[in-house]
């Protein structure tokens, strides 16, 4: 693999993080509508929320143009990524994905014995779909695609991906992680969920952690063929990890288009400010279709992390193709100014 993430030594005493730009959260959430729904739902927390979960699933199915049998809920999409990895790879096999990509599913697959077939991204950091198709062999159990991709922020053409998924899913199931899709402003992209009603063996994961601003409230879902979901749920139940309050928050935020639009607009503005600041300082960056930007740096990743942390700023550092990179999440405009100031102080 050509990617490695750097971490600070946990033994090193560090100041509190006051500008958190490390986990691609939404600085504006949770929406007020969701906060009110949570307050209301707390009173009912003595009960299991089966009926309310069924109502939420109905609402999601309607929005996605699928049936409720196509939906499985989880406390965040991480839970679903990990469950799929456990069930699909408990008897070995290999997983094909891009490198770099978001590693949750791949890491769990590897930990239960899967082999990772890493396919380098193209020069523009989009998925090399041709090479990924060529990497599939008789032991491939799943193809994992993250679009837009993390940690690179790049997009793979929706049209090309749709064609790839429709065709290649005849051979092997394709898992498409769309955590950031609502933030892909100005991109040729689309959800792969339309393939599910065409009976394709495609699994689409979505989360309430990003555009909906609810990373800490923990709700996600995946849409897939009912047979696929049955296979996962035979081993590990869906929905059991979600609280009454999370269900209410998710339902309210789904209806809150105003909050989602505001997030998209503000994210785009703050990202443009970051781009122009980076350009002024002579940095290059990968154009991002998400709420984070990754760019090459001139000092070792660990050094960047420790210098940022002394100012209370949390970011991520990676080594990609043997070079150090910084990934910064898009916060509020004020937070981006703090980050840009700290970056200027480095030189
Ligand atoms: N998928 C991608 C691509 C992500 O970047 C993340 C989180 O950052 C997740 C999934 C998991 O998010 P959650 O478990 O909060 O839904």
Automatic annotation (TrEMBL):
Q: Does the keyword Coiled coil apply?
A: no
Where does the Aminotransferase class I/classII large domain lie? 18-343
Q: Keyword annotations for this protein? A: Aminotransferase, Pyridoxal phosphate, Transferase
Q: Which domain of life is it from?
A: Bacteria
**InterPro entries hit by this protein:** Aminotransferase_I/II_large, HistidinolP_aminotransfase, PyrdxlP-dep_Trfase, PyrdxlP-dep_Trfase_major, PyrdxlP-dep_Trfase_small, TAT_signal
Q: Single GO molecular-function term?
A: pyridoxal phosphate binding
Q: Per the similarity annotation, which family is this?
A: Belongs to the class-II pyridoxal-phosphate-dependent aminotransferase family. Histidinol-phosphate aminotransferase subfamily.
Q: Check the record and name the PANTHER family matching this protein.
A: HISTIDINOL-PHOSPHATE AMINOTRANSFERASE, HISTIDINOL-PHOSPHATE AMINOTRANSFERASE 2
Q: What is this protein called?
A: Histidinol-phosphate aminotransferase family protein
Q: Name the lineage.
A: Bacteria, Pseudomonadati, Bacteroidota, Cytophagia, Cytophagales
């Amino acid at each position: 693999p050509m990617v490695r993430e750097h971490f600070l030594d946990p033994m090193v005493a560090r100041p509190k993080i006051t500008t958190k730009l490390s986990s691609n959260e939404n600085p504006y959430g949770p929406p007020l509508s969701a906060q009110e729904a949570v307050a209301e739902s707390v009173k009912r927390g003595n009960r299991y929320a089966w009926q309310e979960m069924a109502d939420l699933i109905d609402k999601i199915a309607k929005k996605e143009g699928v049936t409720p049998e196509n939906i499985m809920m989880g406390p965040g999409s991480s839970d679903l990524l990990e469950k799929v990895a456990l069930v699909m790879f408990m008897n070995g096999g290999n997983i094909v994905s891009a490198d770099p990509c978001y590693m949750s599913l791949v890491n769990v697959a590897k930990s239960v014995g899967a082999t990772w077939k890493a396919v380098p991204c193209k020069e523009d950091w989009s998925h090399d779909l041709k090479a990924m198709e060529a990497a599939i062999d008789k032991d491939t159990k799943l193809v994992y695609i993250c679009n837009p991709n993390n940690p690179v922020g790049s997009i793979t053409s929706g049209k090309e991906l749709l064609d790839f998924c429709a065709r290649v899913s005849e051979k092997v199931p394709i898992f498409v992680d769309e955590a950031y899709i609502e933030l892909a402003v100005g991109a040729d992209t689309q959800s792969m969920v339309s393939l599910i009603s065409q009976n394709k063996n495609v699994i689409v994961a979505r989360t309430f952690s990003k555009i909906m601003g609810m990373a800490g409230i923990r709700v996600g879902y995946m849409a897939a063929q009912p047979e696929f979901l049955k296979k996962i749920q035979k081993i590990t139940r869906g929905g059991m990890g979600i609280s009454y309050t999370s269900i209410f928050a998710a339902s309210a935020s789904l209806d809150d288009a105003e909050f989602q639009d505001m997030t998209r607009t503000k994210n785009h503005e703050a990202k443009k400010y970051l781009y122009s600041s980076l350009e002024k300082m002579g940095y290059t960056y990968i154009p991002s279709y998400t709420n984070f930007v990754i760019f090459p740096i001139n000092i070792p990743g660990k050094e960047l992390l420790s210098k940022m942390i002394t100012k209370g700023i949390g970011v991520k550092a990676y080594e990609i193709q043997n070079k150090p990179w910084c990934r910064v999440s898009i916060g509020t405009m004020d937070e981006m100014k703090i980050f840009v100031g700290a970056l200027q102080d480095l030189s």
